[in-house]
Amino acid sequence: MRLEARLRDSARRFAGKTALVAGDIRLTYGELDARSDRLADSFVRNGVKPGDRILMILDNGPEAVLGFFGAWKIGAVPCPLYPSIKADKLAAILDSTEAAAIITQARLQPTVETAVAATKIRPVVFVAQAEVCDEADFTLRFEDAVDGVPSAPIEILEDSNSLALLIHTSGSTGKPKGVMLSHANVNAACQSIVSYLGNTAEDIVLNVLPLSFGYGITQVVTMIMVGGTLILEKSFAFPRKILERLAQEKVTGFPLVPPMAALVVGMKDLEPGSLPHLRYMTSAAAAMPPAFTERLRHVFPETQLFLMYGQTECMRATYLPPAEATHRPLSAGKAIPGTRAYVVDEDGNPASPGTIGELVVEGPHVMLGYWRDAPTTLEKLVPLPTGRRLYTGDLFRADEDGFLYFVSRRDDIIKTRGEKVSPQEVERALYEIAEIAEAAVGGVPDPVFGEVIRAYVVLRQGAILTERDIIRHCAGRLEDYMVPKSVEFRDALPRTTTGKIRLNANNSNNEPTQGNVA
Questions:
Q1: Contact 22, 249 (CB under 8 A)
Q2: What mean pLDDT comes out for the span 389-399?
């Protein structure tokens, strides 16, 4: 089934029910369907054709959701991009995708104009929150597009194997890669997520995750699938206000990432049971430190916590049932329903329990490939009768019961004193220290050992901790070659656009890099 058909179905069944909340705006399913119809019609009238790419540079809000469904209704391909994208990178993506249209906001219009001027591509630009636009300059007000009258009924499309999303993500090289996901890919992933989360029309999900990457997009699609309500917030900059909103709206589902969890568990005045309606929380994008998991379970005793792992290339790969979190707090779980996930050794054979190797994912949720990058596609994908096999590039191990454990990104492994060290293992020890709010570990060159381990930490407000305190703690928890040789205290750590803490292994200054974990 195509994704816009999911909206059609829910609009038919729940026409008057609230589908989307963003700030003061509340849209019913009927309104969301009608407005995305009008946007789709406006796309067509401005020359956008099936298969054309539409760049979306937007904060979380109704414009993004309408943009997705308006594009899908005419067979176009949304390309969501993080709103802080720089003009040079946007220009490169505009050139690569040859986008027919751009949706953005007035405050971001200068970046878009700079990027367009640097290319030969001349897309029509829909600008939200703009007072005036110049149609002669191919610029239109977004509000006019969604409030107009469609000139003709929107035809229902059938091809679920066509391209639905082009999500740009980049690893440590910083070069954007376009991940191509079909309607069938996204539908399969989200159906699986709905099944293990037990989502229904009664669910209300609050999402602060950017709608420019997979983890955020799945919140939109899963709620539309079941007829639930999605509440969008632009950021987690003021966590106490978000928690108040969770209570006010009687939210049942709350997706987060570990840095968000760090802010929550650092609130000393949270009373256990303060969010009685919160049925579940999910965590993805990075491994959750066990210390955070324990604190979350204490503060939200009736809330189920689902720990997950995924990549943009498959949206979601594994999940750990909440009942297993007590026994296997470090596990990423097993493959999501209807798929396979397993570890292979250096020869490509299934690895024995305990052996570290590359995680391989198989199923109908695995991407079509990388946009105009056949060599990398051939390197990462193998066609199968029921989907594709994805070589993730991430190192895992499995236990005797088949539960999977993330070890490291292959590029992040630190080689010191002849040993290989997973940064995650050292970071877990650091997070046991109550005074540490955020931590990351990297390798720095050393003439004797090749690399030595350095810890980068952010202390909680008012905390006092010395380098010696941290090294002494780690020495009591880790083997000697894993113990950091130095500690650097920082006011903040570099993050990817998805909020994940990440040091750039290719940059000794540890500048932020774009992440590719969903």
A1: no
A2: 95
510 lies in some domain: no
- pLDDT surpasses 80 at 138: no
Residue 191: enclosing H or E segment and its boundaries? Answer: helix 183-197
* Contact assessment for residue 77 and residue 168, using Cβ atoms and an 8 Å cutoff: no
Q: What are phi and psi of 36, to 5 degrees?
A: -70, -30
Chain centroid to CA 372: how far?
Answer: 23
Domain with 360 in it: 189-408
Do 140 and 283 fall into the same domain? no
How far is residue 352's CA from residue 30's CA, in Å, rounded to a whole number? 52
Residue with tokens 């997979």, as numbered in its chain: 214
Residue 196 forms part of a structural domain? yes
Q: Give the chain's radius of gyration (CA, Å).
A: 23
- The dihedral sign for the CA sequence 508, 93, 383, 321: positive
Query: What are the structure tokens assigned to 124, written together?
Result: 């029509």
The helix (run of H) or strand (run of E) holding residue 10 is helix 3-13
Residue pair 317/392 in contact by the 8 Å Cβ criterion: yes
| Cα atoms found within 13 Å of the Cα of residue 409, Cβ hemisphere only | 18
Q: What is the pLDDT of residue 508?
A: 35
Q: Are residues 88 and 101 in the same domain?
A: yes
The single residue listed with the structure tokens 């379970």 is: 297
pLDDT digits (tens, 9 = 90+) for 172-192: 445 678 999 999 999 999 999
- Checking phi first, is residue 271 left (phi over 0); if not, alpha (psi -120 to 50) or beta? beta
Distance CA 11, CA 30 (A): 5
The span from the CA of 129 to the CA of 111, in Å, is: 15
Pairing of strands 387-398, 381-384: antiparallel
Residues 397 and 423 in one domain: no
pTM, to two decimals: 0.85
Max Cα-Cα span within the chain? 73
Q: Which of 139, 158, 177 is the last residue of a domain?
A: 158
